[in-house]
Design a protein that fits this description.
By secondary structure, this protein is α/β, with parallel strands linked by helices. It has one domain (10-168): Rossmann fold, CATH 3.40.50.300. Helices cover 49% and strands 13% of the residues. The protein has 7 helices and 5 strands, in the order E-H-E-H-H-H-E-H-E-H-E-H. It has a 5-stranded parallel beta sheet. Helix 3 crosses helix 4. The protein is globular, with a radius of gyration of 16 Å.
Length: 175
């Protein structure tokens, strides 16, 4: 598969922290030879600071505003096809849900066993003050708005990448 199999929209990946949004976004981009972006990495590059430092020094409200602005910039400045890995909390801003869905396929990467590995949550800015389960529940309404849900713990990595590509193809055919 390559870029000649042209997609005309974005592929957005959402899901809880540590589920593999960045990894799978990169793998899909690599397989299709198209750009893949990670919204959190774009924010870090823009601010020249880590997400954790931005939260600590400027607060969550500042971070969420920057997240919205940079996502809008990506949609304006990049020509599809592009894979965009959203931050785990991006869709807590309900206004972003229709924006994302109108520009492409939104896939929720779900992992039911995410609470078993505490190392997954090291250096995550919001966890200093919140229980992981509560934070997950707060984000669930955004995740449930996705066009599709794929269980990452039920597939091999290769199968998951192919499933993402196939969902994207079907979404484009459905128009």
């Amino acid at each position: 598969m390559n870029r000649s199999e042209s997609f005309s929209s974005f592929l957005f990946l959402t899901g809880f922290m540590g589920v593999g949004k960045t990894y799978y976004g990169h793998k899909v981009g690599e397989r299709l030879q198209i750009p893949s972006l990670d919204l959190d990495r774009e924010i870090e590059r823009y601010e020249n600071s880590s997400v954790a430092d931005i939260f600590d020094k400027k607060g969550e409200a500042y971070f969420r505003k920057l997240e919205t602005d940079l996502l809008s910039s990506i949609l304006y400045n990049y020509t599809p096809p592009v894979v965009v890995s959203l931050g785990g909390g991006t869709l807590m801003n309900n206004a972003l849900i229709p924006l994302v869905k109108n520009h492409g396929l939104l896939v929720y990467l779900q992992q039911n066993s995410f609470l078993t590995s505490q190392s997954t949550f090291e250096n995550r800015p919001l966890l200093g003050s919140k229980n992981v389960r509560i934070l997950f529940q707060e984000r669930m309404s955004g995740y449930s708005a996705a066009h599709a849900c794929i269980r990452v713990d039920m597939l091999t990595q290769k199968e998951l990448v192919l499933r993402l590509i196939n969902h994207w193809k079907l979404h484009e055919k459905a128009g």
